[in-house]
Amino acid sequence: MTGDISDQIYDLQVEAYNLPNGETQLHLYEAALRLAERSRDLDLIFPARLYVACGAGNSGYEEKTMAELAWCLAVFEKDRERFLDHKKFLLSILKTFLCGVSQYPHVTRDKFDQLLGQLDSHLRHFGYSQRTIHYVRMSFARSIGDRETTIASHDKYLEYPRDEMSHKVPAEAESEFWYYWFLEETEKEVETAIKILTTKPSKSFTPHDTYSGVLRSLALLKQYEEADQYQQKGYRLIRDNRKFLELVGFQIAYLLHRERTAPAIRMFERHLLWGLETHDQGSRYIFYVAAQHLFTAIAQEKPVHKLNLPPSFPVYQDSSEYDVQQIIDWLEKETSSLAAAFDQRNGNAYFSVDLPRLLKY
């Protein structure tokens, strides 16, 4: 019986693995986990939970990643030897999760340090270098606006050799791009982005972030031909995966800069549901701030606008006719609340001051 279930689980996981990241892939991983739990075989359940954790993170359901990861870590720490074959997968998921955990303001800096210490303990136990620890700390610091720690951790991680726990070379290159983006070193940022986007693509890595992230700097340098191309190509890559809600915000900001309000509004209509449903508060904030800038810009010209918005939108209108100021007021209330939560956790004004400035140019 267990053998039959094992084969079914394997088939579902292979089918999921061969799909693009997204909800369909996640649903297959979750179906495999349900079968594994029916078997009550911990050796089937453990890897099945890891696949769900990974699939959830890749499709924008990080809250599921958090839950599955916590379970797997607890089980792994009780019996490392039993699950030794899964250590690299587990630690890779934890590493990736920690690089993005800053998006949840309820995760305090002390909690991050605790989780990073947990990762550090496992890496040291298995003989890995400190490159990954400094890389993760840099990613977290950059996301919360901690300039001093970002620079120090960036310099530290480059001192250590790469090993099998390091991010892949293209991913590290993209992280360098965001490093310069954060420091607002525009020319270095664009130089790094162009190098990434003109390099032969890897089968296992697509620079989704770079296409949308570089738009602001290209606009500031008046390189609109490249920017327009990257905007269109970048949006095609992200439009079907809610994981990229933050990048949709960057897209809207660029379209507003180019005075292309009609496609920017269509993006807002298409992706508002993601913003309402996501647990990723950082991405929600970026999306809402970009939308707030957009509607503020069009309010005087068109105070009432016909919009196709989901019924779950708090100021939804059956008539589809919206008072633009009412939408602005709702967005302002949401962004103010989120910014306050992030700034309190971060100990600075990065969310309330710097990010809104970077999204309006």
Largest sheet: 2 strands, antiparallel
DSSP strand (E) fraction?
Answer: under 5%
- Estimated helix fraction: over 70%
Spans with pLDDT under 50 lasting ≥5 residues? none
Number of strands: 2
Protein name: Tetratricopeptide repeat protein
Organism: Blastopirellula marina
Question: How would you sum up this structure, described in words?
Answer:
It is a single chain. This protein is an all-alpha fold. The protein has a domain at 239-361. 72% of the residues lie in helices and 2% in strands. The chain is built from 18 helices and 2 strands. The protein has helices at 2-17, 23-39, 42-58, 62-78, 87-100, 109-125, 131-144, 147-157, 169-183, 186-198, 208-213, 215-220, 224-238, 245-257, 261-277, 281-299, 324-346, 350-358, and strands at 304-306, 321-323. A two-stranded antiparallel sheet has the order 1-2. Helix 1 packs antiparallel against helix 2, helix 4 (62-78) crosses helix 5 (87-100) and helix 9 packs antiparallel against helix 10. The longest helix has 23 residues, at 324-346. The model has no long low-confidence stretch (mean pLDDT 95). This is Tetratricopeptide repeat protein. It comes from Blastopirellula marina.
